[in-house]
Amino acid sequence: MKKIAVLTSGGDSPGMNAAVRAVVRSAIYHGCKVYGVNRGYKGLIDGDLFEMDLSSVGDIIHRGGTILRSARCEEFRTEEGRKKAHNVLNVFGIDGLVVIGGDGSFQGAQKLSEMGFPAIGVPGTIDNDLAYTDYTIGFDTALNTVLDAISKIRDTSSSHERISIIEVMGRHCGDIALYAGVAGGAEIIIVPEEEYDIDEICKRLIQSNNRGKKHSIIMLAEGVGNANEIMEQIKEKTGLDSRATILGHIQRGGTPSAFDRILSSQMGAKAVELLLEGKASRVVGIKNNEIIDMDIHEALSMERKFNSNLYKLASILAK
C-alpha cells in the first residue's frame, strides 16, 4: 500500500475535515502518499485528484463542511460510471480508497470493493442512521446545534405563550429529534419509528394549557411529516397559537464538537490502518466506546434499532 486516496460524499457533516486530516497524516506517518478527491464520486470519475501533504490539512480540524467538497453523482450508480472511476484510480496508481459519507456513499465503496479495489468506509452523516455504529460523525454537533435553537425558540415561545413545532433533519431516522427533544425538555417528540395520534397530541396540549402551561415545544423529525401542516392541524383542533420552525441545513454546518473531532480522528486513522493491513470492503464504527470495523455488506444489511427506552423516558419526563 503506497498510495491512498480519500473522498467525502453525500451530505456534508461537521467532523468530515477532522477525518480527512486523520487519514492524510496517518497515511503519511506510515510512509504512504495521499491523494484527495474533489467532489466525491464525481471527482473520481472526472479524475479530479491531487496529492496532499501535511500542510494540506493544517488548520482544518475545527472547520465544518469538507475541504474536499461533495456532490451527488448519478453516473457512479451505473456500471459504466464505476468502471471509469476504477480506471482513474488505476491510472493514478492508487492502492486503496477511504470513503467518508453515509449509506449511499458506503454502497459506492462496496461496489468498488466488488470490482477488486480496496475501499474502507468512514461514517460521516448527521442522521446517525447507520445501524452498525453507535454514532456517526457529525451527529453530536448537529444535536448541539438543534439544542441551541430549542433554547432560543423556547424563549420566544414562552414570551408569546404559544406552541412551537421544530422540524429537524434525519431523513427516516428520528435520532436528532429524540436526543435533542430529551436534552431540550420538549413536551412532545414525533419520530418515524413510533406511531403518533394527532388527536392525542392535541388533547395533551389542551390539558397542559388548562393547568397553566401556556407554551410547549414539539420536536418533529422530517421523515414523519411537515411542520407547517402539523401546525395547522393543531391550530384547527385546539385553537391554540402555534408556530412552525424548520431548521434545515443549519444543522449540517458549524464547528464540530470535541466528541466529533475525536471520533473523526480515531476513525480516519483506523481506516488507514485497515488498508495497510490489506483489508478491504470494511467500514469503521464505534460500539460501546470502542472503535471497531465490520464487513461493509454486513454493516449495510443490519436493521437499525431505535432507542425506544429513551423515547418512553421522554414521554414520562414531559408530563
General form: elongated
Number of helices: 11
Distance between the termini: 58 Å
> Total strand count, please?
11
Q: Summarize model confidence as the mean pLDDT.
A: 96
Task: Tell me the β content.
Answer: 15-25%
Q: What is the number of domains?
A: 2
CATH A-level architecture of the largest domain: 3-Layer(aba) Sandwich
CATH topology of the largest domain: Rossmann fold
SSE pattern: EHEHEHEHEHEHEHEHEHEEHH
Structural Rg = 22 Å
The major beta sheet can be summarized as:
7 strands, mixed
Adjacency order of strands in the biggest sheet: 3-2-1-4-5-10-11
Helix amount, in percent?
40-55%
Tell me the name of the CATH class of the largest domain. Answer: Alpha Beta
- Poorly predicted parts: none
Supply the helix-strand structural class.
alpha/beta
Please tell me about this protein's structure.
With 319 residues, this protein is α/β, with parallel strands linked by helices. It has two domains: 3-138 and 256-301, 3-Layer(aba) Sandwich (Rossmann fold); 140-252, Rossmann fold (3-Layer(aba) Sandwich), CATH 3.40.50.460. The protein has eleven helices and eleven strands. Strands 3-2-1-4-5-10-11 form a seven-stranded mixed β-sheet, sandwiched between helices. It has a four-stranded parallel β-sheet with strand order 7-8-6-9, with helices on both faces. Strand 10 (282-287) and strand 11 form a beta hairpin. Helix 6 packs parallel to helix 11 (308-317). The radius of gyration is 22 Å and the shape is elongated. The mean pLDDT is 96. The active site is at residue 127. Homotetramer. InterPro entries: ATP_PFK, ATP_PFK_prok-type, PFKA_ATP_prok, Phosphofructokinase_CS, Phosphofructokinase_dom, PKF_sf. ATP binds at residues 11, 72-73, 102-105. Pathway: Carbohydrate degradation; glycolysis; D-glyceraldehyde 3-phosphate and glycerone phosphate from D-glucose: step 3/4.
